[in-house]
């Protein structure tokens, strides 16, 4: 009887251990990488199998066959805005990533089923397929890797690397359209926020477009709460519009106001504002030139 009870207890213990959520090291640990390109957030979640002395491409990962591009659960790609992948549009959203590797060319697949696997994959659920070129690397990558390189404010490469092979997909985002939409949305949501209006005006200034709109925004910002920031932005907008005589006193006032504001961030702007003052003064006709011009008349 005692022996039977011991056996039952042992069985219950094994069953409990089998169902317990015990965190243990995984052969292919999970990983995630988030990269912002312009104002687009791109997140890739995947698992990282290791080589462990194995031949990878052409052996463990056969050529010409669908590969889950990682291990364990599906690798996922999430983009907060539309992205061009190799020049083809991928709408904002979350997708599973598959590839079909070959020696000279890979097929990169974005599938709408984020829980897909090589067994459950359906081509009709593909959102996009593009071709990318693999390259041989000088150093071997022991653990499978996905990352981003060659970043600008509108482009990046998504690198897929393992063993001595790296395949990169060219990504592009429409940063200007998205940023402008974000600016206009922020102003619409907070039309009485002086800081938002200044930031919106400064964005248009930085792009050299919609300066009349930028001037209206910064004027409203100054009316709500005058400070060295919005005065300086307005002076730059006026100078950009060719109204240097109007820009100079605003830049001078911004410099003076910043000195007495107690705003710790002013030190980061002081030199730039002072340079604007000097540049505007140099661009205006000097008194001697004005007198000389009158005598000629």
Main features:
297 residues; 6-stranded antiparallel sheet; 4-stranded antiparallel sheet; 8 helices; 40% helix
Please, could you describe this protein's structure?
With 297 residues, this protein is α+β, with helices and mostly antiparallel strands. 40% of the residues lie in helices and 27% in strands. The chain contains eight helices and ten strands. The protein has helices at 2-19, 175-189, 194-207, 211-224, 228-240, 244-261, 266-283, 287-296, and strands spanning 30-37, 40-47, 76-79, 83-85, 88-90, 93-100, 106-111, 126-132, 134-149, 155-172. α3 (194-207) runs antiparallel to α4, α4 (211-224) runs antiparallel to α5 and α5 packs antiparallel against α6 (244-261). The longest helix has 18 residues, at 2-19. The relative contact order is 0.08.
List how many beta strands DSSP finds.
Answer: 10
Low-confidence stretches: none
Largest sheet: 6 strands, antiparallel
Beta-strand content: 25-35%
State Rg. Answer: 30 Å
Q: What is the spatial order of strands in the main beta sheet?
A: 1-2-3-6-7-8
Percent of residues in helical segments? Answer: 40-55%
What's the helix-strand series? HEEEEEEEEEEHHHHHHH
User: What structural class results from the helix and strand content?
Assistant: alpha+beta
Distance between the termini: 126 Å
Nearest-integer average pLDDT: 90
| Count of helical regions | 8
Shape: elongated
Nutshell version of this structure?
This protein has 297 residues and is an alpha+beta fold. 40% of the residues lie in helices and 27% in strands.
């Amino acid at each position: 009887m005692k022996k039977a009870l011991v056996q039952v207890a042992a069985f219950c213990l094994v069953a409990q251990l089998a169902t317990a959520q015990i965190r243990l090291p995984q052969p292919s640990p999970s990983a995630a990488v988030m990269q912002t390109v312009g104002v687009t957030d791109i997140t890739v979640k995947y698992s990282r199998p290791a080589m462990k002395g194995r031949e990878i491409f052409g052996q463990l990962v056969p050529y010409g066959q669908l590969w889950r591009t990682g291990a364990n659960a599906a690798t996922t790609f999430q983009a907060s805005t539309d992205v061009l992948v190799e020049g083809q549009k991928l709408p904002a959203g979350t997708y599973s990533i598959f590839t079909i590797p070959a020696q000279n060319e890979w097929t990169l697949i974005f599938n709408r089923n984020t829980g897909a696997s090589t067994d459950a994959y359906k081509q009709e659920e593909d959102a996009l397929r593009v071709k990318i070129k693999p390259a041989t690397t000088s150093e071997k990558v022991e653990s499978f890797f996905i990352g981003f390189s060659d970043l600008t404010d509108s482009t990046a490469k998504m690198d897929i690397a393992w063993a001595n092979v790296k395949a990169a997909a060219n990504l592009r985002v429409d940063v200007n359209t998205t940023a402008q939409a974000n600016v206009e949305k922020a102003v619409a949501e907070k039309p009485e926020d002086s800081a938002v209006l200044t930031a919106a005006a400064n964005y248009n200034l930085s792009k050299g477009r919609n300066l009349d709109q930028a001037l209206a925004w910064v004027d409203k910002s100054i009316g709500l709460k005058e400070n060295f920031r919005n005065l300086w932005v307005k002076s730059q907008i006026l100078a950009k519009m060719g109204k240097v005589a109007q820009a100079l006193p605003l830049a001078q006032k911004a410099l003076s106001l910043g000195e007495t504001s107690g705003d710790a961030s002013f030190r980061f702007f002081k030199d730039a504002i002072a340079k604007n003052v000097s540049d505007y003064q140099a661009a205006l006709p000097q008194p001697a030139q004005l007198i000389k011009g009158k005598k000629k008349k």
